[in-house]
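Lecture 7 notes: from sequence to structure.
We start with the chain below.
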Amino acid sequence: MRTVLLASVFALTAGSAFAQSANPAVLTPERVFANPSLNGPVAQGVSLSPDGELVAFLRAREDDVSVLDLWAAPTGAGEPFKLIDARALVPDAGELSEAEKARRERMRISQRGVVEYSWDEQGRYILAPLEGDIFLASREGGGIRRLTETEADEIDAKVSPEGNYVSFVRDQDLVVMNLASGAEQAITTEGDGLITWATAEFIAQEEMDRDTGYWWSPDETYIALQRTDETPVDIVPRLDITGGGASVVEQRYPRAGRPNAIVELYVQDVAAGRRVKVDLGADTDIYLGRVNWSKDGRTLYVQRQSRDQQTLDLLRVDPTTGASQVIATQTSKAWVDLTDDFKALSDGRFIWSDESTGWRHLYLYNADGTKIRAITSGDWPVKALNGVNERTGEVFFTASMHDGRELPIEQQLFRANMNRAATPVAITPAGGWWSASVNRTATAYVGDYSDPVTPPQSALYRIDGTRVRWIEENRLAEGHPFFPFAGRTRAPEFGTLQSHGETLVWRMQTPPDFDPTRTYPVVMQVYGGPSTGAGVKRSWQSTTNQLLTEAGYIVFRLDNRGEGDRSAAFKQSLYRQMGTVEVEDQVLAANYLRSLPYVDDNRIAMMGWSYGGFMSLMALTEPDMGLAAAAVGAPPTEWSLYDTHYTERFMSTPEANPEGYAASDAIPRLDNLTGRLLLMHGMADDNVILENSTRVIDSLQSKSIPFELMLYPGQRHGVRGNDRQLQQWRMYLDFLDRTIGLRAPSAD
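Predicted C-alpha cells for the same chain:
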C-alpha cells in the first residue's frame, strides 16, 4: 500500500511564528537585492579537515554578497577566522576564460572570489582556485602561497591525496605540480581544438552531476583521466548578445537524438609516464557516469551508462592494463539514475544504491559484484550515502522519512548498519531540512539545518548528534539582517493532494494581516520537472517570497508527479510524456485553490524558470488551468532543441518518440493562451538557448497576439547580480500588479 501523507502531519500554525520586532518593516525589492544578505551569515561549502581539527567554509562578504572569502574555525576553542581574503589577494578580478565561465555556469556558481576549495588527505593544505589562478593555504604557520600566475586559467585544481602534488587543467591539458620543487609536469600535451583532457564534457557537467574529468589514486601512483573528442557533436551557432555588441559562438551542443562527444578513459602512471586505455566496451556511444578508486588503489571502478540510460554497468578495471570486467548491472524500462552512492571498502567489498524495489536503497556487495544484503529498506527513498564507519559497520545516510514512512517535506541524517539488519535511527531532530557532510572516519559531521522560521545554520556535531560548536549559528534575533522584517512573515502551511494514487505535497504562504473572509490573488510557483531535490520543503524560504506576500498575493507551490526524490514510480510518471502529467497535477492544484473561500478564482498566475518556465507556458495554454497570467523564464519550448542526456532520459529520442515530442511542443498551443504572458530569457544562454524563446516570439507575432518580453544581454541561464535581479523583480511585481493585482481589471 502506497504511503499516505496526511495534511494534518504537515500543519503549522497559521499565524506568524517568527521573532517579533517592535515595528516590523515592510520588505522591499531594494532591500532584498542589497548588502548584506537578508539570509544572514550563511556558511557555504562547509567541510571538516581530515584530522578533524579545523572546519573550513565559504562566507559572502558583508560589503559585497557576490564575492566569497574562505574562512576556518577550530573544532575546539577559538573563534572563526578568515583564511583567504579574495579581495586582498586579487583586488581587481579580471575576465574569466570562456571555459571557466562555462564550467561555473554548469556548476551553478554565480559568485566570484573563492568559489571552491579542497583539502589534501592529511589536512595539511587547503587549495583554493581564485580568479583563474591557484593559491595554497598551509595549516602550519597559516601562510598562503600563490602557485600560478598565468594568462591562461587553471581549472579543476586538486591537491593529491598525500599532499605531494597539485593538479589542474590548463589549455585543455592536465598538469601536475610538485609542491616541494614547484616544477610542473605536463601529463598530457595533445589537448587542442576539439580534443580535451581531464575535463568533464558539457553533458557530464550540465546533466550528470559530474564536474571533474580526472581522479587520483589514493597512493598517488595513478591518475585516471578522460579524453573528450567533440568532433561528432553538431555545431549550433549561438548569438552571444551583450550590452556592447554581439558575437557568434560556434557552440558544440549535443541535441536530443544527435551525436554526443566521444569520451575515453585512460590511466596514467605518474612516475613512469606510462598511459593505458581503459576498456569501456566496443560501443563508444555510452556515458562515463562515475569513476572511483578502491581503498588500496589497485582497482578502478567505472560506472558505464548506456545511451538510452536504461542500463548502468559497474566495471572493475585493472589500472596497469586497462582491462575491465562488468561485475554488477542495474536496469530499468524507463531510466537508471546516476548517484554518488558508491563506496569502496577496505576489505574489497563495496556499497551501492539502486531502485530495484521501487525505492532507492543501499546494498552491500562482495568484491565480485554479488549482492550480500540490503542495508536499508522500506517505502521511502535514501537521498544520499553520507559516510561509513568500517570499524563499527555503521552507515550514515540522509532520507526524507519519519517512523518508517516517507515524509518528502523534511530531511534528516540517519544511521543503519551494513553487517546486520537494523532499523534506521535518526541522528538529527525532525522538523526541518538537514544536510550533512560526514568526515572520513564517520565519527563527526558538519550539519546544515533550516526550517521556515530558522535561517540556514551550520554546526559541527559528533556522530551521535551532539553539537560540538557552531560554525554559523545565524540566529534570527535583533541584529540579524532579516529581523526587522520577520514580524510580517506568516509561517507556511503544508498539505497534500492525491493524483492517480500518488501523494503530492504543497506549501502555501499568505500575506501579512491575512483575513480569511477576504479573497486574494494567488501566485503559483513552479519547477515541475525531474529534480534531485524537492521544491516543497519545511525549510527557510527565499526572501523573494515575502516580496510577493507583501504585495498581497498568496504564494503556492505544488510538487507534481515527476518532481523530486520520490519513488521510481512517482519520478517515472512523466516518462516519454513531459508536459502532460505535470500540467494535469497543476490543474488539480488550481482547482484546489479555487475551492478555498479566500482565493479569487479569476486571479491566479504562475511563475517559473527553466523547466518551470516550460511548465508556466504549458499551464498558460491549458484551458482547464484558467490562468490569468504567467511569467515564463528561459523555457525549453521544443525538447528536440535540448541536450541528449537530460532529454533522452525522460523522452527517449525524437525518432523513437515523435508523438511525445510533438505533444510537448509549446508552439501549437499558443492559440490557447488564457491570460497575459511575460517572457524572459538571457541573451547569452548556452543551456536553454535563446532559440527556444525566439520561436515563441515569432509565432505570437505571426498570430498578432500581444505579449510582454524582457531579454537580458550578457546573461546566461539565469540573471546574475543585485542590479539586474532588482530589475527582474521590479518587472515581476509590475507585471503581476497589472494582471492579477491591484491594477488588474478584475481587481476590487
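Points to note: Confidence is low (pLDDT under 50) at residues 1-15. The domain at 7-22+480-739 is CATH 3.40.50.1820 (Rossmann fold).
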